[in-house]
Amino acid sequence: MTAANLVSAVSADGRIRTWRRGIIRSSSQIRRAQRVHAAVMNGGPLVGTVLAGYLAVTARVTVLDLVLLVLFYTLTIAGITVGFHRHFTHGAFKASPSVRVALAVLGSMAGQGPLLYWVGNHRRHHHYSDCPGDPHSPLFDEERKVGGLTGLWHAHIGWSFNHDLTNAAVYCKDLLRDPLIAKINKHYFLWVLIGVLLPALIGGAVTQSWYGALSGFLWGGLVRLFTSYHATNAINSITHAFGSRPFETREQSRNNLLLVLPTLGEGWHNNHHAFPTSAAFGLQPLQLDLGWMIIRALRAVSLVWDVRTPTQRQIAAWNPDHDPDTTSAPAPSTSAPGPEHSSLSIVPKPRT
Ligand SMILES: [Zn+2]
Ligand SMILES: [Zn+2]
What we know:
- The protein has one domain (28-344).
- Strand 1 (6-10) and strand 2 (16-20) form a beta hairpin.
- The radius of gyration is 20 Å and the shape is globular.
- The strands form 4 sheets. A two-stranded antiparallel ribbon has the order 1-2.
- Helix 2 runs antiparallel to helix 9.
- The longest helix is centred in the N-terminal third of the chain and has 31 residues, at 28-58.
- The model is unreliable at 326-352 (pLDDT under 50).
- By secondary structure, the chain is mainly alpha-helical.
- Helix content is 54%, strand content 6%.
- Residues 125, 129, 240, 253, 269, 273 line the site of one zinc ion.
């Protein structure tokens, strides 16, 4: 812990209170709401997945069910990795308003929290990585040191039941200034609902049956929510514990090959911590990164531009003393600092 990250003030009752910059201590009421929300968002998809499995064994699972699962999984995980993560959190590329809206809506449909909540928590994760203040580290639960299975559980899912809040006014200033994004953020539950109703509608329309609608709801909705949620959360837990570390970064991030495909490239997590503002997470020719392929396709049709990637020389020259913000130097047309810089520059790094 460094004193630079702590703020103190005299409260109304005359006592001196200290807190971390950018973090709001959750009241017991907020923590109760977090428990209810996490129970519903974890329990609902889990129950749906068990039911879908039961029906697959006792009745049937159709090609349409699997198509809906893969289609909605890919679209919403792309919303998370290409949209919430690479674009909105790190400003790794610029995008047209229509692409921003599409990415914001698709990411919201993944049911991992509203855009500002997701981005704020993730910027906070980069700021306090594996230190007290990191919302989902396998090494710390708020100020308490954890590790082993307890740490993995906390980083994967435990934190969502009970955590201090990230101050959006500190971490998401750039997004708060965008009225359209703020509006999409506000209607988060509507997007989640559409995300589960749409596959039900398609299933019912194609099969002309209520069973088809139920099956579409289960496979394209709840099973998809369950699998995509745990794939993303595995980046918080598994890739901070198991895998290779080609870059000796300050935190414990790893590249984990098993998670590369299901997360569309997020499995290259050590690469990402070394070059956080890079639009590409796979940094070598054979490092498959479907999220990066999507960005390149969008760039080819001029829907995104100013795409930031490090040069091979910068990758080769990387060392742990480099500041990650400057290491991931932008492409020539993006010399101006991206949103990550502007939001994080106001709070000092936990380690120097
Ligand atoms: Zn990380
Ligand atoms: Zn990141």
